[in-house]
Every structure is written in C-alpha cells, then in structure tokens.
Fold this protein.
Amino acid sequence: MDEALEIRPLRVEDPPVIAAAFDEIGWNKPESQYRRYLDEQEAGTRDVLIATAGGEFAGYVTARWVSPYGPFDGIPEIQDFNVLPKFRRRGIGSALMDAAEALVGERSPVVGIGVGLYADYGTAQRMYVRRGYIPDGRGLLYKLKQVPPGEMVRNDDDALLMFTKQLR
C-alpha cells in the first residue's frame, strides 16, 4: 500500500463523509445509519473501525457485542464490513479485519460473522474461509431464521451463512 493507512474508531464528524462516499458509488448507506452506529458505539453495544488511506475514507467494519443471531448466544459478531471499490486489493480489508478480530479478541475467544450468498459476496466468502472462519453448521438463514429444506427464499442481502472463528 502506497498511502498511509489509519484505522481508528468512528468519530462524530464521520457520518456525512461516509454516507457521501457511498452515495457517490450508488450504494444506499444513509448518514442516519452511521449516526446510529455512533450512538451504539457511545452506548458500548457496537464498536466501529474506520479505515482511511492517505487521509481519505476507505472503508469500515463494526463489532456488535451482542449478536442478534440467537445461536451465537454471547459471541460478538463482526458486521457491516465495507471497503470502497477504489480502495480494494490494497490490504485495507485485511487490515480492518485484523483490527476487528483483535478488538473482539480482547473480550471473547470466539467471533462470529455472516456472509451473503450471491456473487457480490464472493470475495468476502473467500476471505473469511482463508482467515479461518468455519460455517456454524445451521445452514441457510433468511432474516436470521433458519430456512427449512425445500423452502424457497429470495437471494438478497438477508440470505446468509453464519461463520465463527476461534481467536484464542
């Protein structure tokens, strides 16, 4: 990576910058989402790590301390991991994941993560497996509910497989 990479917590001035960066590429990630994340970070229910490259916003990841996925039962979950396309393939995603895993590892020996199933998630699917994440064995979920055999669901952002990784 040529540019100086910084990974730091979400700050009060970040939400409009992040929302504008995603708006520029046509992704619907409103400023209100990051204001909510800031509130959750201040409340201690989520931590948000921001990556900047050369001083420019490049991506982020969050650690949610109590996963909404019932079977995780106390396992923190890495959620909402995004690197802007123009910053991909520079090690920023790996650096964000390293930082998130280190953060979670301070409080838990295990971390969870969910991943979507369509091709846009292919890079993330491969990354998680290479990093040592394994499926939790409960199969396909839709809106965090297990999908019974033979049932059809829409393949969108709510269709997931959940994974865990031993951190220590």
The two ends are 29 Å apart (CA to CA). The longest strand covers residues 56-64. The chain has one domain: 5-166. The chain has a mean pLDDT of 95.
